[in-house]
């Protein structure tokens, strides 16, 4: 069974969930955004990236990107390569 702990060392509002498989999920309590990693530090790094993307960071996905991933830009269905 997973266990939950709250990081009270700062005002960031991060909850840690220690999963049965050994992974750790870090969840931002304000936004609900979560990410996981093998360690607490990795989970926090991944959470920081997820929060950046959640807030509009990153780069837009282009039609070329979709085609590279095997997706149809018009319907987002898988395409034959």
TrEMBL record:
Which InterPro entries does the annotation name? Answer: DUF7387 (IPR055811), TTHA1013/TTHA0281-like (IPR035069)
Bias (Acidic residues): 61-71
Q: Which Pfam families does the UniProt entry name for this protein?
A: DUF7387
Q: Where are the transmembrane segments?
A: none
Ranges where the record places region Disordered: 55-81
Designated name of the protein? Type II toxin-antitoxin system HicB family antitoxin
The record lists the organism as: Halococcoides cellulosivorans
